[in-house]
Write a structure and sequence with these properties.
By secondary structure, the chain is α+β, with helices and mostly antiparallel strands. It has a single domain, classed as Glutaredoxin (3-Layer(aba) Sandwich). Helix content is 34%, strand content 23%. The protein has an 8-stranded mixed sheet with strand order 1-8-7-4-5-6-2-3. Helix 1 packs antiparallel against helix 5. The protein starts with a helix and ends with a helix. The model has no long low-confidence stretch (mean pLDDT 90).
């Protein structure tokens, strides 16, 4: 069943506030900023682990969580295991996590770092030229964009979150099952 995006965002915002107010532990859900008028996500390309240029349009039809991180960013490193768990538990045909390294050295630094930290559920993505971050108006790391099935940025979170928390899973399940 389809319903207007404003109602969808209002429902998710209410859910975000409700979940945040109900728990004693902060999960980051309270930092989600929902777009009232979702716009198409940037079309700037980035590279997958095989060195192939891809864009967010390649994932249309899925909800995509795009996390911009770097090996030198302590808060990024702290939240990466939660993204790895989320990809393991919910990733598939409906949801994909793109953990996009912003390290200037690209794959040569990010790949061994991911292997050392045993983030084995996440695929490697890199954007060493920072063009994606600039086009997406990212102000700092970590920043996470939530892209809906139509390729629109519906929410953004600056800072860290517990991406594998039940709070986040509720919101992502709602997005997955929501408007097509």
């Amino acid at each position: 069943m389809s319903f207007p995006i404003r109602n969808f965002i209002a429902t998710l915002t209410a859910l975000t506030i409700s979940v945040a107010a109900s728990g004693a532990t902060e999960t980051g859900v309270e930092k989600l900023v929902w777009s009232e008028d979702p716009q198409p996500a940037t079309s700037i390309s980035f590279q997958n682990g095989q060195g192939k240029n891809v864009t967010l349009a390649d994932y249309e039809g899925k909800v995509v969580v795009v996390n911009l991180w770097a090996t030198w960013c302590a808060p990024c490193i702290r939240e990466m295991p939660t993204l790895d768990n989320l990809q393991r538990d919910m990733g598939g045909e409906s949801l994909h996590i793109i953990a996009m390294s912003q390290d200037r050295e690209g794959k040569s630094v990010a790949e061994p770092f991911m292997e050392t930290n045993e983030w084995s559920n996440l695929d490697l993505y890199v954007a060493p030229d920072l063009a994606f971050a600039r086009a997406a108006a990212v102000k700092g790391l970590p920043t996470t964009l939530i892209i809906d099935k139509k390729g629109r940025e519906v929410a953004r979170l600056q800072g860290t979150a517990e991406w594998d928390s039940e709070d986040m899973r509720i919101i992502l399940r709602e997005l997955i099952s929501g408007e097509d």
